[in-house]
Fold this sequence. Notes:
Layout: E1 2-5, E2 9-11, E3 17-24, E4 33-38, E5 45-50, E6 57-59, E7 67-72, E8 77-82, E9 91-96, E10 105-109
Amino acid sequence: VQLVQSGAELRNPGASVMIFCKTSGYTFTREYIHWVRQSLGQRLEWMGRIDPEEGGTKTARNFQGRVTFTADTSTNTAYLDLSALKSEDTAVYYCTTIHDWGQGTQVTVSS
């Protein structure tokens, strides 16, 4: 099983960022994809998840209105789109099935 994420991103405050998570080695539609992030020195923070089979999502309250989760079953790829970025969004973002994890994507928000 592999979850391969897109590379590091640098954004200005107020911008948006999209991260992809390309999966292989298992049946994509059988596992939820969760997104979590970790800021320097902080605990892991769960952002939400998507059911790739049906497209249903659940979003943590802290991110409602700013985050979109999508999944493309033709390419076995999940996407996280985070908008209205703030400096506090600087973190490493991970996709995970809980059993397996992506390598992480560093997002830096700075002017």
